[in-house]
Specification:
hydrolase, 24% strand, 432 residues, alpha+beta, 37% helix, elongated, 3 domains, Peptidoglycan synthesis regulatory factor (PBP3), Domain 2, cell wall biogenesis/degradation, Beta-lactamase, 18 strands, 7-stranded mixed sheet, cell shape
Length: 432
C-alpha cells in the first residue's frame, strides 16, 4: 500500500526544500525546458540557429536547424573534442611537445603562427585553436595524435556519428572550405552540448579574451566575451559561402545555455543574434536547483529489521528548468510506503519523488536506501509478524488481541525458560 506524502518525513528538510524551490523561482531566471518543446517567438536574422539548455540537453528554440551549411571553424570544436578525449584517456599530456611539420606550417587561413620544425607544448596549441582559431595548430595536433591528417579526419567523422551528428561530414581538422564538408545547426548544437558537458575544463581556454605567442597578440574573435560577463565561450566561424557563425555559451545562476547562430551577414549580426537568444532564454525560463543529495528526503519504519527505521535519499539530483508559468507552486511530492520489511539492501529503491507544478510532473526521482538493514533476531521477527497482522482492516479487532497473544507468547517463553532452569537444578542435585 502506497500513499502520497512522506512517511515520517524530515520536517526541516521539507520546509528547506520548499524554501529553496520558492527562492529559486523568485531569484533565478534562466533558460530550459522540462518537456523539450522547441518554440520561438523571436526572429533570428541568420540562416539557421538553435538555443539549447546544456544542463538538461533540451532544445528551447530552433530556426532552420537542419539546413545544410559549411561548418567553417566550428569544425575546430570537434578537433578540440578529440584532443580533450585523448587527454582524458592519458594518451597525451598538456606539456607534451608537438612537432610542427611543413604541412602544419604552410596551412593557410587564421593562424597561430607556429614555426617550422619547432616543438610546442600541447597546452599552447590548445590555446592557439580555442582562442585565435589557428589552422596551423589544428594540423600539428592532428598529425601528433593520429599520425596523419587523413587518419585524424576519419576519427572526427567516427566521433561525429557516435555523438548523433547524422548530417555532418568533415574533410579537414580546421574547417577551411572543402567540397562536401557540411553540417547543420542541430548537429553543431549536439556537438557543443556534448563537449561542454564532458569537458567543462575547456572553458578555461575558450574564455581567454586574447592570446600571445612569440610576441604576436591576437584577440579572441568571440567578442561577446567582452560584452557580457556571463559568456565564457565558445567558437566563431566564417566562410564566404556560409556566412558568419557563432557558438556562444553563458552561465547564469547555475544554468548553462548555448546559442548557435550560422550564416549571419556580419560579425556584428551574429553577436547580436546569439546574445538575443541567450537573453530570451534567461528571461523566460526558471531554474530550479536540485535537492541536497546529502540530506534524507524521508525516514521510513522498518519491520523485522536490525534497525527500526531507514532514511531515504534522492538517487539523482538534476536541476530542472521550466517555463516561468509552469514554475508556480512547484513542490516535491513523495510516494513512499508507510513501512518496509527487512532485509533492505544499500541502493534499493523504496519510493519515488515527483516534482510537481499543478498537475504537471516536471521530474521523477527514485528514493533509495544508502545503507543495508539486515534481518533482526528470531524473537523480534516473530513479534513483528504478530504485530503486522494488526496492520490490515480488521486491526480494530485484532490489534488488542495481537498484544494479548504476544504477551501470552512472551509469558509462555518465559515459563519455558523458568521450567528449563528448574529441571537443570533438579538434575544437578540428583547427581550430587
Amino acid at each position: 500500500m502506497r500513499r502520497n506524502g512522506t512517511a515520517r518525513p524530515l520536517l526541516s528538510f521539507t520546509r528547506g526544500l520548499s524554501l529553496l524551490v520558492f527562492t529559486a523561482f523568485c531569484l533565478f531566471s534562466a533558460a530550459g525546458s522540462a518537456l523539450g518543446a522547441a518554440e520561438s517567438s523571436i526572429t533570428v536574422n541568420a540562416t539557421s540557429a538553435m538555443l539549447v539548455d546544456v544542463t538538461n540537453k533540451e532544445t528551447l528554440i530552433e530556426h532552420n536547424a537542419d539546413v545544410a551549411i559549411a561548418p567553417a571553424s566550428f569544425t575546430k570544436v570537434l578537433t578540440l573534442y578529440l584532443i580533450f578525449e585523448a587527454l582524458e584517456k592519458g594518451d597525451v599530456k598538456l606539456d607534451d611537445s608537438i612537432y610542427i611539420s611543413k604541412t602544419a606550417w604552410q596551412t593557410g587561413g587564421s593562424k597561430m603562427f607556429v614555426e617550422l620544425g619547432n616543438k610546442i607544448p600541447l597546452e599552447e596549441l590548445l590555446k592557439g585553436i580555442a582562442v585565435v582559431s589557428g589552422n596551423d595548430a589544428c594540423v600539428a595536433v592532428a598529425e601528433h595524435l593520429y599520425g596523419s591528417v587523413d587518419a585524424f579526419v576519419a576519427a572526427m567523422n567516427q566521433k561525429a556519428q557516435e555523438l548523433g551528428m547524422s548530417r555532418s561530414r568533415f574533410l579537414n581538422p580546421h574547417g577551411l572550405p572543402a567540397p562536401g564538408q557540411m553540417t547543420t545547426a542541430r548537429d553543431m548544437a549536439t556537438l557543443a552540448t556534448a563537449y561542454l558537458r564532458r569537458f567543462p575544463q575547456s572553458l578555461r581556454f575558450h574564455s581567454m579574451t586574447e592570446y600571445t605567442y612569440h610576441d604576436i597578440t591576437q584577440p579572441n574573435r568571440n567578442r561577446l566575451l567582452l560584452k557580457d560577463s556571463s559568456v565564457d565561450g565558445l567558437k566563431t566561424g566564417f566562410v564566404a559561402d556560409g556566412g558568419y557563425h557563432l557558438m556562444a555559451t553563458a552561465q547564469r545562476n547555475g544554468l548553462r545555455l548555448l546559442a548557435v547562430v550560422m550564416g549571419a551577414a556580419t560579425p556584428a549580426v551574429r553577436e547580436k543574434e546569439a546574445l538575443a537568444l541567450l537573453n530570451y532564454g534567461f528571461r523566460l525560463y526558471a531554474f530550479i536547483p536540485p535537492p541536497n543529495p546529502s540530506q534524507p528526503a524521508a525516514v521510513v519504519k522498518v519491520w523485522k529489521g536490525a534497525a527500526p527505521q531507514v532514511a531515504l535519499y534522492f538517487k539523482e539530483t538534476t536541476p530542472v528548468v521550466v517555463r516561468k508559468e509552469k514554475a508556480q507552486g512547484v513542490q516535491w511530492v513523495m510516494d513512499i510506503p508507510p513501512a518496509v520489511i527487512a532485509p533492505i539492501q544499500k541502493g534499493q529503491t523504496l519510493g519515488h519523488a515527483f516534482l510537481k507544478a499543478g498537475d504537471a510532473t516536471l521530474a521523477t526521482v527514485d528514493l533509495v536506501s544508502t545503507t543495508d538493514v539486515p534481518p533482526a533476531n528470531v524473537f523480534i521477527r516473530l513479534w513483528h509478524s504478530i504485530l503486522l497482522l494488526g496492520q490490515y482492516p480488521w486491526r480494530q479487532i485484532w490489534k488488542p488481541a495481537a498484544y494479548i497473544l504476544g504477551a501470552a507468547v512472551a509469558c509462555a517463553a518465559l515459563a519455558a525458560v523458568v521450567l528449563r532452569v528448574k529441571n537443570l537444578r533438579r538434575k544437578k542435585r540428583s547427581l550430587d
